[in-house]
Amino acid sequence: ALRPSTSMMTPSGLWTPMLPERPRHCTLDCNLCGKVCPTDAIHVPDYWEASALGLGKRARVDKSWCVAWQKGKHCMRCQGVCPIKGAIVSGTADVFYHGQSRHTNVPIVVPDLCVGCGICTDVCPAAMPAIRVSR
Predict the structure, then answer these.
(1) Strand pairing partners for 107?
(2) Three-state SS for 124?
(3) Which terminus of the chain, N or C, has fewer Cβ atoms within 10 Å?
(4) Is the pTM of this model over 0.70?
């Protein structure tokens, strides 16, 4: 997810790790950023450290962009790629689209299980990702 900056205003800022506007997701077992950092500035906390520090991020569904919530179309790609079983579940909702009611499956994030990896954001077919990771 991290990329080296090539456009910082000062020479000391060159190659500073940056997160792009729509970064690729972090995998749960990678931790490569901490391993390759030449200054040891990036410490990757283990599960217990992250829990104690409250570093967990969570995904949330923006219903105004989600094709399931807006158009009543079956999608659920986010649930299909989520590496944490049960972090994104399928709920049901009646969605009104072009004056018609559609009973459809919709994604629901379970905050206590979501680890904020962002894989769901990468696979979202909406023009603006309908599922986003935030603190």
Answers:
(1) 90
(2) coil
(3) C
(4) no
Q: Which of 56, 52, 22 is nearest to 127 (CA)?
A: 22
Rounded distance between C-alpha atoms, residue 73 and residue 124, angstroms? 13
In three-state secondary structure terms, 56 is coil
Task: Give DSSP secondary structure letters for 7-32.
Answer: --SSGGGTT-EE--SSPPPPPTT--H
93 phi and psi, to 5 degrees?
A: -150, 155
CA 81 – CA 93 distance, rounded (Å): 22
Tokens read off for 83: 């590496």
Give the tens place of pLDDT for each residue, 55-99. Answer: 556 889 999 999 999 999 999 999 999 988 899 999 999 999 999
Tokens at 119, concatenated: 């894989």
Determine contact, residues 53/45, Cβ cutoff 8 Å: yes
